[in-house]
Amino acid sequence: VQLVESGGGSVQTGGSLRLSCATSGFTYTRYSMAWFRQAPGKKREGVAALGAIDGRTDYTDSAKGRFTISQDSSGDMVYLQMNSLKPEDTAMYYCAAKSGPQCLTSLKYYRWGQGTQVTVS
What is the pLDDT of residue 69? Predict the structure, then answer.
């Protein structure tokens, strides 16, 4: 089982980025997927989550209306579209997977990627 993130980078305030998470080694449709982020000196925060069965989504309050989590039809990719980026969005972003319903609690997830850095200035 492997999760590989990409798409991070440096953008100006108000800009957009799309993060991608390539999954392999499991049938993703049995797993809920989520994006987390962690800034230096801060705890890991759940940003967006996507349910395995019903496709329901959860977002942290700061992401609502700006970020969108989605998946492609093949089941191999999960995305996080981030618009209207702010400096406080600067962090390492991680893709994660868990069985069962989606949530934004990091301790519930047991498959993690290595992260991709997002810097907003």
Answer: 98
